[in-house]
Amino acid sequence: xxxxxxxxxxxxxxxxxxxxxxxxxxxxxxxxxxxxxxxxxxxxxxxxxxxxxxxxxxxxxxxxxxxxxxxxxxxxxxxxxxxxxxxxxxxxxxxxxxxxxxxxxxxxxxxxxxxxxxxxxxxxxxxxxxxxxxxxxxxxxxxxxxxxxxxxxxxxxxxxxxxxxxxxxxxxxxxxxxxxxxxxxxxxxxxxxxxxxxxxxxxxxxxxxxxxx
Length: 213
Ligand code: TMP
What we know:
Helix content: 40-55%
Strand content: 5-15%
CATH class: Alpha Beta
Mean pLDDT: 94
Number of strands: 5
Structural class: alpha/beta
Distance between the termini: 10 Å
Number of domains: 1
Bound molecules: thymidine-5'-phosphate
């Protein structure tokens, strides 16, 4: 059995990555591909509980280091329970965020040393690395207003941070993308969603057709 393909979507608040991840899953299903769509933090029972704590529990203080460990805990479970079994079964796995989010938010955003995050990620993910990562890049002010910053009913640990934090996250993502250009594709996210979806599709079709498959 050929190993499946692992695709991740990354981006800041209001970048539209979740919508693109869903569109890609729908497009692949329409082509009768076996697809697993997962999100982080989340994807498993443990992950969804952790999501509640790490994102929405206003009364719980979490240092950036504690955040790294919590996100990585959720990820370790997601890798073993969902992602690896699906890849072993030849499926296409689409992750709405993966370890690059920890590098961008806790690393570049909050200043946790990137090497320390890489160490924890190696334990959490083992050899599991996305085959292709789509970065939906958007200006911070546009993204934050699209995401309804501070207008949501549920408190959110990240949306209460200032614009300078989100600028560091954006810059961090762009650096991650530049450092590994074979894995990353940077897409301008302030365009029509179907134009972006078509670019994603073109890339994924090429991946599916690659000789290794
Ligand atoms: P989302 O549901 O819009 O993707 O939001 C998840 C939030 O969690 C987002 O603000 C980014 C944050 N996050 C991190 O800070 N580190 C991580 O490793 C992950 C997966 C998410």
